[in-house]
Write a structure and sequence with these properties.
Elements lengths: L5 H85 L1
Length: 91
């Protein structure tokens, strides 16, 4: 059964209005969800950066420790070579 005249236009405009309201509500919800996802990803990225910087810092400390160890080994090598040289000269 079709309505004619003003009543059918009124019903159509009410449907359009409800549809637009639903679309606006869904758009707002989508924006909120998107913001939440982006905030979560931002927090994750910041934490990963902090972890990476901490790892780099620990590696720099380890490199410095290894450099010191190499210097000590160089000193030990020189000392042993000198000892061997002296022993060789004594013979």
């Amino acid at each position: 059964m079709k309505l004619k005249g003003k009543n059918s236009n009124k019903i159509k405009s009410e449907k359009v209005k409800k549809t637009l309201e639903r679309m606006e509500t869904v758009r707002k919800e989508d924006n909120l969800n998107l913001r939440k996802v982006l905030n979560d990803k931002l927090e994750w990225a910041i934490e990963e950066k902090k972890k990476g910087l901490a790892s780099v810092e620990m590696l720099v400390i380890k490199i410095n420790e290894l450099k010191i160890q190499c210097i000590k080994l160089d000193g030990a090598i020189v000392a042993m070579q000198d000892i061997l040289k002296i022993k060789k000269e004594e013979k």
